[in-house]
Amino acid sequence: MRIGVLGTSWPYRGGLAAFNERLSRQFIAEGNEVEIFTFTLQYPDFLFPGKTQYSESAEPSDLRISRTMNSIGPVSWFKTARAIEEAGIELLVIKFWIPLMAPCLGTIARLARRKGIKVVSILDNVIPHEPHFWDKWLIRYFTGSADRFIAMSDSVKADCLRFLPKNRQDCVSLSPHPLYDNFGEAMDKVSARKELGLPTDKTILLFFGFIRDYKGLDLLMKAYAEAIGNESGVKDKEDLLLVVAGEFYNNGEQYMQLEKTLGLEGKIAWHTNFIPDERVRMYFSAADLIVQPYKSATQSGVTQIAYHFEKPMLVTNVGGLAEIVPDGRVGYVCDVDEHSVAHAIEQFASIDKSKRAELFGENIRKEKQKYAWSRMTEVIYGQ
Fold first, then answer.
1. Alpha carbon of 300 to those of 62, 172, 214, 260, 334: distances in Å?
2. Which residues have C-beta within 8 Å of that of residue 5, sequence separation ≥ 6?
3. Cβ atoms of residues 284 and 187 within 8 Å
4. Residues 287-304 pLDDT 10s
5. Rounded CA gap, 79 and 68, in Å?
6. Model-level pTM?
7. Among the listed residues 292, 285, 286, the one whose alpha carbon sits nearest the alpha carbon of residue 223
8. Could you point out which of 251, 273, 274, 320 has its C-alpha 20 to 30 Å from the C-alpha of 382?
């Protein structure tokens, strides 16, 4: 089959690009011809919260990527739809993540469907983490644009169904976020820590990814301070180290001020530049526990990186996170509360280091089998 993937890809960076490129490779491995149609302009600079939208990595040599669409340029939407038709695309797959992209992606999808091309959308989110009053109109426009939808968590499926008429309620399928297995194999923990300039003898808690308010770094910092400050908390206070790895997507100064207020200077390792793909494995190999204290969520690519590197996780009970992190088996599910998170940190720190792999490792290896990319493509094909 000739398959088109519409959305973020190289030269853009981040989880959306990683997902679309990895999905495309899976399609190719299954015998399909694939072309990715990505942006000439994704976000105007004034709307982008990070330092740069662009990847420093070389263009993938194994993927066909066409830069055709400007997210705010309607003329390009028609040109992209024409390019999709001329490429003989039979199935168009769209990764949808934010209502502001609905006019662009939704219009291209509608034009493609008029030409008899099947359109399937994989939903990162339906309702955004940081909502606006115009969202519902944009979401409704997009949900009227595709033949079928794939949600990666129950909460996203429920959100999508809210925007579909009764006669279309059966067009939403569920398939969990596949493993991010494209960052290479795990490294030796000591070697990874030396590469990153981290101590080799501590228990490392890793907060990874773009730093936005809804991801709860402030909650984690308060929980961490509680865990190492209370008499009843972590016994060996000096054994724990919190590593924050990722670029600030909001005001970073608030976290620096909170660090001072909580007396955590020197107790957090800040690696707050964008983490390129080739360095992701270093951080996950160096970590003991991956911590995601989100205040709201749907699902998370960070969880699927943790599964790939077989690391236990701490997540909050929001969105679909608890669905894929069985409490007590592959990690901890906490309330969105600093005391609950602190208690879980204390529990993990109390486990003898030599027994952590025994306690979580086999369960993680079993659980990760659910998240093969072939399972996602089966749902896309409609099998």
1. 26, 19, 13, 30, 16
2. 20, 23, 24, 27, 34, 35, 36, 37, 92, 93, 94, 95
3. no
4. 999 999 999 876 688 999
5. 7
6. 0.85
7. 292
8. 320
